[in-house]
Structure formats: structure tokens, C-alpha cells
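Notebook entry, structure prediction.
Reason for the run: the old model in the group folder had no record of what sequence produced it. Starting over properly, with the input documented here first.
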Amino acid sequence: MSIKDQIQATVSANPVVLYMKGTASFPQCGFSGRAIQILRACGVDNIFTVNVLEDPEIRQGIKEFSNWPTVPQLYVNGEFIGGSDIMTEMYQAGELQALLGQKS
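New structure, fully documented this time:
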């Protein structure tokens, strides 16, 4: 299975996927930590995370898959949402909560 197919399978099989540096319990960069905090503030308990630091092919592959140069990257119901800055803006506007089916 190619990296692209592997990523597609992951984002298709899980409602909320965050490609990040580190894990939900131990983020290894500030942007990844902020992304986890935002998702938790939205009431998302079941976040499927992929630590890009564990696999250089995934780390590069996710950037090519989304055509987005940075990590973290959020996918909701198979759709690429954006990185930490976009998540922050959407959260502040109440859009992320609506997308995730939560109350703002």
C-alpha cells in the first residue's frame, strides 16, 4: 500500500484525524499541542492521531497528500480542514465546534 493510500485509508476510517508531531498526551511542538487543546475544548474525546515524527515517509507524504506544507493537519470526516492557525480561527468563530457537531 502506498503512503497516499495509507493516509487515505486513515482519514476515511476515522471521523477526526490529526497528523501531528508527538501524541495527544505528549505533543512535541507548540502547534500540535494547541491543535489538541482546541479539539478537546470542542468536546472531541476520540481523536485519532498520527505521530509524523515516527515515520519520515508519513511526515512527507501527508504534506503532499493535502498540498499543505506544515503539520499539524486536521481531517474531519475525510476532509482536510487545515493546520493549527486555521483551527484557531475556526474555533474562535464557532465554526469548528459546528463542524464537529458540538455546541460553541
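Summary: The chain has one domain: 3-99.
The old model has been moved to the deprecated folder.
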